[in-house]
């Protein structure tokens, strides 16, 4: 096994990696709802889920696409955390700014899409349900998701749009990024190693306390993901270096053990990221050699924000059909149809955002 030669991620390469990650997330978000098993060890650890994965692959190998996407697809989120840390570190280095200027730029970059996607949710669900019912039932929950405070309200975290827990977490990360980068420039990479260690330690020590006392899952906050974000910043600061085979081997072992032991599960975010980034970069390089696939995946990568924002509320009514049938073929064809719907809706959302920004004279 050879060392992995790290080099900076280009903008083009990053777009293709985002495409691969968002596809994993979309299929996971859909297929993990078809059946309760195997589930996923995303926000907490349950040994029976790993056992269900093994039993499912052994007993129903023809259903492997659903099983694998259900269990592993959520790790695409870790790739976005890594890329966020990586990209923001490079942007900040090229164009330093004050804490307030950084916040204005980041929030202005994300909120037009969030607001248009929220309007899209209200319209889409109003087509299926009574509009007044949608607003009365989920209006306040939607507002709290938009402003990022729903993560602190147990009944509101996944309502009305499941994947929008990510909004609150990424906004928290934006608040911390300028501080982390300043500390890192002052004290060096040891700051990032300390952050990675403290993030894991807080999940181990503080996580159970928050869950017991406040019914709050630490992985619904940036504290549960700061290790992977800091890893992205660390890699951005190391332009060229070697990832020794021993590191990759250790990451693989940690990931496997993390799916069988609750304590080691805390390290799976970092370990799977260390494994996936080289694999995704290799895959992206191969995609770039196939013109039609390169164009398609580049488009998906550029749409990734909109795909993330709308896929959660577009699952119905398709998911209902898949849940009724619960066979591998229905899961497969409805998930592909779902992806097509999400891509079309995302194109519409991006068009509307661009039109609004042009009319308001807002620079993108």
Features:
single chain; 364 residues; mainly alpha; two-stranded antiparallel sheet; globular
Task: Write up this protein.
The protein has 364 residues and is mostly helical. The chain has one domain. It is built from 16 helices and 2 strands. Helix 14 packs across helix 16. Keywords: Acyltransferase, Cell membrane, Membrane, Transferase, Transmembrane, Transmembrane helix. Its main location: membrane. Belongs to the acyltransferase 3 family. It is a multi-pass membrane protein.
Strand order across the largest sheet: 1-2
The beta-strand count equals 2
Mean pLDDT reading:
95
Helix content: over 70%
Layout of SSEs?
Layout: E1 4-6, H1 11-31, H2 47-59, H3 64-72, H4 76-94, H5 99-128, H6 131-146, H7 165-187, H8 190-214, H9 226-237, E2 241-243, H10 245-258, H11 262-265, H12 268-287, H13 291-302, H14 304-311, H15 318-325, H16 328-360
């Amino acid at each position: 096994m050879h060392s992995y030669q790290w080099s900076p991620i280009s903008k083009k390469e990053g777009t293709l990696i985002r495409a691969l990650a968002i596809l994993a997330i979309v299929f996971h978000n859909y297929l993990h709802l078809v059946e309760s098993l195997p589930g996923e060890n995303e926000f907490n650890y349950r040994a029976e889920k790993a056992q269900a994965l093994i039993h499912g692959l052994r007993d129903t190998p023809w259903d492997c696409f659903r099983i694998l996407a259900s269990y592993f697809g959520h790790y695409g989120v870790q790739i976005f955390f890594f890329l966020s840390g990586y990209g923001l570190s490079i942007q900040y280095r090229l164009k330093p700014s004050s804490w307030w200027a950084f916040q204005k730029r980041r929030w202005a970059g994300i909120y037009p899409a969030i607001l248009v996607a929220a309007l899209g949710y209200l319209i889409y669900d109003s087509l299926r349900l009574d509009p007044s019912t949608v607003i009365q039932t989920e209006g306040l929950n939607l507002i709290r998701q938009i402003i990022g405070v729903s993560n602190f309200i147990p009944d509101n975290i996944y309502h009305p749009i499941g994947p929008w827990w990510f909004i609150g977490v990424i906004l928290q990360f934006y608040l911390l990024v300028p501080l982390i980068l300043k500390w890192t420039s002052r004290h060096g990479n040891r700051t990032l190693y300390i952050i990675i260690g403290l993030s894991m330690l807080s999940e181990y020590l503080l996580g159970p306390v928050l869950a017991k006392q406040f019914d709050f899952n630490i992985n619904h906050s940036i504290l549960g993901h700061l290790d992977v974000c800091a890893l992205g910043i660390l890699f951005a600061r190391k332009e060229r270096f070697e990832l020794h085979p021993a590191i990759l081997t250790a990451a693989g072992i940690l990931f496997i053990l993390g799916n069988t032991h609750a304590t080691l599960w805390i390290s799976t975010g970092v370990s799977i990221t260390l494994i996936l980034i080289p694999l995704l970069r290799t895959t992206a390089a191969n995609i770039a050699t196939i013109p039609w696939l390169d164009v398609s995946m580049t488009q998906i990568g550029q749409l990734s924000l909109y795909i993330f924002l709308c896929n959660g509320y577009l699952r119905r009514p398709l998911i209902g059909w898949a849940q009724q049938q619960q066979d591998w073929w229905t899961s497969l064809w409805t998930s592909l149809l779902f992806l097509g719907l999400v891509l079309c809706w995302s194109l519409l959302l991006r068009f509307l955002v661009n039109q609004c920004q042009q009319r308001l004279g807002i620079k993108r």
